[in-house]
Amino acid sequence: MSFLDSLRAFFQREQPQAERITPEETAAESALASAILSDTALTRERVLEIPSVTAALGLIKGVVRETPIKLYEKGEDGSVFEVSGDKRERLLNDDTGDTLSATQFRDAMIDDYFLGGGAYAFINWQGNKIESLHYVEEPYVSILKNDDPIFKSYNILVQGKTYFPYQFFKLLRNTKDGAEGSSIIRENKLLLSVAYNTLKFEKNLVETGGNKKGFITAAKKLTKEAIDALKAAWRKLYSSSQENIVILNDGLQFTESSNTSVEMQLNENKQTNAAEIGKIFNIPLGMLSGTGTSQASEDDKHKFLDYCIIPLFKTITNALNRDLLLEEEKGRRFFDFDTKDIKKGSMLERYQSYQIAIKSNVMSVDECRKIENLPPRGHDFINLGLGSVVFNPDTGKAIVPNTGEVLDINELLSKRKGGKGGEKNES
């Protein structure tokens, strides 16, 4: 027995003398019952109908799409420099060699990362070089794993054809085995179901003109013709947006069995759901709603970068280093996002930072101009104050720029110690 049948039986037991007539399984009633009482099967398409989810993914993909990925190498002296001319950079930033551009490739991978069981791209290895990257839609990917919980291994199947893990770039969320990830749909089914069903309920209210559901009690038994006429009028009232009216004859009484959107505080619930969905992605509510003061928006931006984007960047670059680097390159070379543009902040903040960096001799003027995409002045100097003394701890020598004098600190210390020792011996 369904919930609605149980509800009807309950009222029939409570008031056996009256005839109950309920609107039977109209399209509007079925939609409402499905939205509230059934366990809606969530799919990617349905989840993407939730505005907060779409907005969150849009924010994330926008930053990931526009931030370049670069290949770096560590020098023997500990310095880090960019490796120029490597084809893998072009594949990741411009042309993947597939039908998708690099930005489309990233968008598709991010969608599968959050909404699917993982994002997969075939690596077209030609010897020790990568010729192209080919995104593979998640439904076409199957994972064949062994049963050993310690020494885990797996193969990847695409339409029945078997591939080895090294042939795929894999971006996995909350994975436990390195082969498959876990989607937000799987981990947050209840919250996303509430948000989706709230939209369905609102849709039903709009289609029925906001009319409440309920049931009719009759003081005396109605004829079949009267019942059929009442049903037809009721069905027309709830299934059409046109102006309709139902006349209740003598002895009929309508009793409400549902609340309006105002009574259910749907707007407040939607805001709460949006905030909870933002927590799934670690995105502040202010960024999803587009509200807040200038300072609050700046604070939200920093939180968004620190708690959502930077950890995601780390996940992506870790996967790139594992799958796109040769074994001989690992530990020496690494991929990383060039985040200087997204961390620039306002013009005032940037220029104040440059001023401090130049004054502290951390950066030169031309280095600061390069960050701002300005042509160099050709004055790649470090500013030294005339009152400063420059000391080299490796040689033990100090230079006084004001006078040009070079002092050997070790020699001065030796003389000082010798002088003190001589004074003691003479006494």
Q: What is the count of helical runs?
A: 15
- What spatial form do the alpha-carbon principal axes imply? elongated
Distance between the termini: 113 Å
What strand order characterises the main sheet?
1-10-11
Summarize the biggest pleated sheet.
3 strands, antiparallel
Describe this structure in words.
The protein is α+β, with helices and mostly antiparallel strands and 427 residues long. Helix content is 45%, strand content 17%. It has 15 helices and 15 strands. The strands form five sheets. The protein has a three-stranded antiparallel beta sheet with strand order 1-10-11, covered by helices on one side. α4 packs across α6. It is elongated. It starts with a helix and ends with a helix.
Task: Give the SSE layout.
Elements: H1 3-14, E1 19-21, H2 27-37, H3 44-47, H4 51-66, E2 69-74, E3 80-82, H5 87-93, H6 102-115, E4 119-126, E5 129-136, E6 141-145, E7 154-158, E8 161-163, E9 168-171, H7 184-187, H8 189-207, E10 214-218, H9 224-239, E11 252-256, H10 266-281, H11 285-289, H12 294-323, E12 333-337, H13 347-359, H14 365-371, E13 390-392, E14 397-400, E15 405-408, H15 409-426
Antiparallel strand pairs: 1-10, 2-3, 2-12, 4-5, 4-9, 6-7, 7-8, 10-11, 13-14, 14-15
Helix pairs in contact: 2-8, 4-6, 4-10, 8-10
What's this model, at a glance?
This protein is of the alpha+beta class and 427 residues long. It has helices at 3-14, 27-37, 44-47, 51-66, 87-93, 102-115, 184-187, 189-207, 224-239, 266-281, 285-289, 294-323, 347-359, 365-371, 409-426, and strands at residues 19-21, 69-74, 80-82, 119-126, 129-136, 141-145, 154-158, 161-163, 168-171, 214-218, 252-256, 333-337, 390-392, 397-400, 405-408. The chain is elongated, with a radius of gyration of 35 Å.
